[in-house]
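#lab-general

N.A. 3:47 PM
ok so I finally got the sequence cleaned up, no stray characters, all 134 residues accounted for. can someone with queue access submit it? mine expired

B.Y. 3:52 PM
send it over

N.A. 3:53 PM
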Amino acid sequence: MTPAEWESLCDGCARCCLIKLEDEDSGEVHYTDLSCNLLDSAQCRCTHYEERHIRMPDCIRFTPELAATLSWLPDTCAYRLVAEGEDLHWWHPLVSGTRESVHQAGISVRGRTIPVRMIPEDDHEDHVIHWVQT
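B.Y. 4:20 PM
back already:
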């Protein structure tokens, strides 16, 4: 797969842009409704995509090898599905032919996030969500 083909797998859900908390005892990862400060929540797109790794050093660069090892990726993530040899879902833009299908299917984070800069770090645990499955 070429880099462009790999990049096209992103369905635009922006779930990977949600802040995740890891339980120190169990190692379990919990998603929050807090988003990266670079996320345009209406478009579910990074506002500085080409510079995201400079502006946000902890932003993950997905590769086929890495996607196969990240157990916290949502079970809907195309990178994960392809790494596991599974088919893309019907709402994936490469299947449906439209970038809106991920939003219409209720998979994206559109309208469900708060920029992390708006919430004090001590309150992040209050924002754990359960609508993202891994």
